[in-house]
Amino acid sequence: MFSKILIANRGEIACRVIKSARKMGIKTVAVYSDADKAALHVQMADEAVRIGPAPSNQSYLIIENIIEACKSTGAEAVHPGYGFLSENQAFAKALDAAGIAFIGPPNGAIAAMGDKITSKKIAADAGVSTVPGYMGVIKDTAEAVKIANDIGYPVMLKASAGGGGKGMRIARNDAECREGFERATSEAASSFGDDRVFVEKFVEEPRHIEIQVLADKHGNAIYLGERECSIQRRHQKVVEEAPSPFIDPATRKAMGEQAVALARAVDYCSAGTVEFIVDKDKNFYFLEMNTRLQVEHPVTELVTGQDLVEWMIKIADGEKLTLKQDDVKLTGWAMETRVYAEDPFREFLPSTGRLVRYQPPAESDTVRVDTGVYEGGEISMFYDPMVAKLITYGENRDQAIGEMRRALDAYYIRGISHNIPFLAAVMANKRFQDGNITTNFIAEEYPDGFSADDLPNDDPATLIVVAAYINQRHAERNAGITGQVSDHPLEIAESWVAVCGDDHTPFDIEFDGVNGDYIVAIGDRSYGVVSDWKIGDPLFVGEIDGAPVCVQIDIEGVGYKLAANGIQRHFKVMLPRVAELQKLMPFKAPPDMSNFLLSPMPGLLVKVSVEEGQTVQPGEELCILEAMKMENVLKCESKGVVKKIHAEQGANLSVDAIIIEFEKDE
What is the 3-state secondary structure (H, E, C) of 499-552? Predict the structure, then answer.
């Protein structure tokens, strides 16, 4: 067995590999860019080597730097994780030439399956069902439009070397095809150094279901069930689960056997994933094969009891796969949500910055957190915005969802925006809970984008009761402060008003000395509150009328910001007379920024498409902003005249930075 391996990656996947290596008694080497000098994976590894500046094309994508790090530390093998060089044939070849083992499949399999055009041809030859499309390389925009018309709209434009939703566009007409081809080509060249794009029929109302395979160097190959990955946004998976609520045993067997047949066709060895698109009648079509560890592999690990990273290392070392197909049993249900640094209330725009507070839920037999960050660390603009993967387990799907909802409530993140409110809304969605999902789920359930109105609100009084409780605890502490004026001690009122925006909710609260809890009365309803919460704790964990409750707490001036089930509410708890006077306070309107184009996210201003004095029309391109390796076209919303351009092309912009100012309408 290897004595030392290097992880050619960063973030949560690097930390994940280190955990399995440590369990196996293998020493680890981390690599890092300037942006990751203090990263968690660097702290966890036995050794760490700097490999370049922050941009990935100057660090994590430089093959020579990775190999030099192996040589300088004596690492015998490299685990590539996912992304970066994980499916790069040249990297695997270079490692082989240097006498360093690659913890992954052989070069031939990477070359065959890493190229989507070639992989589809091989799949078809192996008898695997494939989606109709044009498998040749498209020369230019005109040819893309012609091919799209021949196939019939809608079509999917996809980078041949792509992955992770980058270099992918759906086109429903010629105009969308032209723009989609240009954007997909540009993103593919930027992210993968390969601008080839192909076209295939876009199957509407599909499910995205994948099969996990394991194969060794001795001809043994098995499949470990399926993963349902249909909850996607912009082709990026958001929620995954195993098994699928849609797949029956016969379909699972058929898909699994085809996946294994494909793996055998390319002499595959290591862990790999064969992705299928499945229609409403359970017809399935080959999509692609990922010759690496998948982001969502933990759900398979939880329902099979297998450590996929450990198997990858053993297989790379030449060990036989002792697990037989009949040994694979799917037990229980696992759910994974991807926690991203993005703002779901602002069209999921990326959010970067320091994690001022970071407290993930406690791990247990039913909760697992795979992360690469820590409190005080930073989410960089240079890499994928994933904060963590939150994985839960239950005896059945309902239990796994319930565990996920509770774990999301307990996930406390401050300093950046995050998508936990959106994930909470998905978990509470009736259609999701019923398993009635497709890859169009998010677009159909949130057609106008995500807003606070989409959040679950099982009991609106819950947050008011918690606000009442924590206010009472603060009042009790204040009343006990020493040095008060003699004969004028602070008295704790029983009647208060919870003010949230324009809503004023009167309530009474008292301590029940018999049962050791508090009674909060709102109108004609009383709530019993029991908790061990202490002032300063960021989470209220307790019971309201016997039901478990977890609420996140932030003190804001004289008020409280409370969050649960994704819902956030700002409360000020006042004495009744103070609440009356508060209603008389004048409203201070925010400044009018309607004549400015503001940067919706931190990013690089790739292009400014207009000039000062130019008249612009609705839909016209104003500029292109690149963030997290994705190009975002900012377009004009209404006719106007460009008064001033405030940001230069090539500038790194912060969120809400002014880009363009328009003439005011008189």
Answer: EECCEEEEEEEEEECCCCEEEEEECCEEEEEEECCCCCCCEEEEEECCEEEEEE
Catalytic residue IDs: 288
Tell me how far apart the alpha carbons of residues 388 and 384 are, in angstroms, rounded to a whole number.
Answer: 11
Kindly tell me if the per-residue pLDDT of 623 is higher than 90: yes
Please, which residues bridge with residue 201 across strands? 155
Per-residue pLDDT band for 296 (boundaries 50, 70, 90) equals very high
Nearest partner of 553 among 653, 649, 414, judged by Cα: 414
Determine whether 375 is exposed, middle or buried from the number of CB atoms within 10 Å of its CB (0-12, 13-18, 19+). Answer: middle
Angle of helix 141-151 relative to helix 174-192, nearest 10 degrees, comes to: 120
Torsion, Cα of 632, 636, 641, 646 (10° steps): -20
Quick one: average pLDDT of 343-364? 92
Cis peptide bond prior to 154, omega within 30° of 0: yes
The model's pTM: 0.84
Closest CA to 505 of 566, 461, 553: 461
- CA angle at 366 for the pair 385 and 272, rounded to the nearest 5°: 55
* CA-based nearest residue to 651, from 630, 623, 629, 628: 623
Q: Are 360 and 408 in contact (CB under 8 A)?
A: no
Strand partners, 549: 542
Backbone angles phi, psi at 171, to 5 degrees: -125, 135
- Give how far Cα 169 sits from Cα of 140, 553, 655, Å: 15, 40, 25
How far is it, in rounded angstroms, from Cα 503 to Cα 497? 10
* Token code pair at residue 573: 């708890």
Residue 659 CB contacts under 8 Å (≥ 6 apart), including other chains:
596, 597, 598, 599, 605, 608, 622, 623, 634, 645, 646, 647, 653
Quote the tokens at residue 14.
Answer: 């690097």
How far is the CA of 412 from the CAs of 355, 367, 380, 479, in angstroms?
10, 15, 19, 30
Pairwise CA distance, residues 568 & 573, whole Å: 16
By three-state DSSP, how is residue 128 classified? Answer: coil
Average pLDDT rounded to a whole number, residues 6-10: 98
DSSP letters, 576-591, are: HHHHHHHTTSPP-PPP
**Calpha distance 521→4 (Å, rounded):** 62
Bridge partners of 239? 231, 337
Contact 29, 11 (CB under 8 A): no
Give the integer Cα–Cα distance in Å for 125 and 127.
Answer: 5
E strand or H helix that includes residue 118: helix 116-125
Name residue 96's beta-bridge partners.
Answer: none
Residues in Cβ contact with 339 at an 8 Å cutoff, skipping those fewer than 6 apart: 386, 387, 388, 389, 390, 411, 413, 418, 419, 420, 423
Q: What pLDDT was estimated at residue 458? A: 66
Q: Looking up tokens 């060895």, which residue turns up? A: 269
Query: What Cα–Cα distance (Å) separates residue 482 from each residue in 471, 478, 493?
Result: 20, 9, 19
